[in-house]
Amino acid sequence: MDPSRVDLNRVDLNLLVAFDALMCEHSVTRAARRLSVGQSAMSSTLGRLRKLFDDPLLIRDGRGMVATSLAESLAKQVRDVLERIESILADPTDFDPAHAERTFAIIASDVTSIVLVKPLRARLAIEAPGIRVQVSPPAADDAERLTHNQADVLITPRDVFPGYQSFRHTFLFSDRLLCAVDVRNEAVGQALSVEQFSSLPYLATTCGRGITSAEAQLDRLGISRNTEFSTAFGMVPTLVSGSQMIALVQERFALAMADQTTLRLLEPPMPLQPTHQLMLWTSSAETDPGHTWLRRRIVSLVAELDETTGPQRKAGAPSRSSRRPIPEQTYQGQA
Predict the structure, then answer these.
(1) Cβ neighbour number for residue 328 with a 10 Å cutoff
(2) CATH: 3.10.20.30, 3.40.50.720, 3.40.50.410, 3.40.190.10. Which one for 102-175+275-330?
(3) Torsions phi, psi of 190, nearest 5?
(4) Are 285 and 291 in contact (CB under 8 A)?
(5) CATH fold label, 177-266
(6) Partners of residue 249 on adjacent β-strands
(7) What does the pLDDT look like over 119-151, one tens digit per residue?
(8) Which tens digit of pLDDT belongs to each residue from 263-282?
(9) Does the predicted TM-score (pTM) go above 0.90?
(10) Domain-by-domain residue ranges, the chain?
């Protein structure tokens, strides 16, 4: 196809939207669902696209479909064009949270959901009653989901998402790792030694992407564990309460769960680095007024929570200045 000979008056530019959906999903069925059209209509649209570009674009491969080399080369160009159109049409004054009706998809762990998303939902119920939040857990394909606009933001520890610099991102907060024991656990005094930590029944943690930061740090330090049970981080306070196990837990999370558990928190006997939570999004969402409002509301919520929960944290927690969010423009990725 020679672009210099294309008469745009004779081309349905909605085909580019369909092409983008097909390239994101690599499936006629999923692309149809994404655009809320029938599967037969999407199959017909794929036929029109194949005729327009004089290329099969998507080829059946077993149970799935793979893109041709031409389709792959066009995918980013089409996405860039659609992003520019979205940016042109977006009016920064259009979004009124008090009256807007919209659903935002957030990728966040169970811990982050308790520490941050739960209070966010409480604020939105008052400030923006028409706004809905859908939370999905982190997984190995987080970057792909974010890139394909299947999520609005990803909230993740920096050290478990090494590709964060490819996305727009901003720092949210740091959190210490502390040892958690049940208040009735008489095997643990006012302090723990490394020997005790290694010999007592231990509750290990896992996450959707594999090993957690806590376990990775212990491995690097060569700290042995008497692992009795493994679970997601979000279950640590509940499972340690009433047991003889010890575990590592984020301080903010333990405090958020304090009224539902019987934990005692102690300084770990080994040097552990805090976790640093980032919020990531794509360049296509950068100028979306609703998305901009959501990001700013999350950042301001962190500041609010710091003001209310700061006094509860132990002396020696990261200073207020070290937790202050860094302006978004200092963290500009390219995704």
Answers:
(1) 18
(2) 3.40.190.10
(3) -80, -10
(4) yes
(5) D-Maltodextrin-Binding Protein; domain 2 (3.40.190)
(6) 178
(7) 999 999 999 999 999 999 988 889 999 998 899
(8) 999 999 999 999 999 999 99
(9) no
(10) 3-89, 102-175+275-330, 177-266
Domain range 3-89, CATH class: mainly alpha
Show the tokens assigned to 231: 């679970």
* Euclidean distance between the first and the last CA atom of the chain, given in angstroms as a whole number: 28
* Sheet bearing 226-232, strands edge to edge: 210-211, 201-207, 226-232
What is d(CA 4, CA 26) in angstroms, rounded to the nearest whole number?
Answer: 29
Would you state the pLDDT for residue 329? 37
Going from the C-alpha of 209 to that of each of 149, 164, 200, 234, the distances in angstroms are 20, 14, 27, 15
Q: Please give the DSSP secondary-structure letter assigned to residue 246.
A: B
Q: Check: CB of residue 194 under 8 Å from CB of residue 220.
A: no
- As given in the structure block, the two tokens for residue 135 are 């939370």
Please, are residues 205 and 249 in contact by the beta-carbon 8 Å criterion? no
Which residue shows structure tokens 């030694």? 193
Most distant CA atoms of the chain, gap in Å: 82
Q: How far from the centroid of its chain's Cα atoms is residue 167's Cα? A: 12
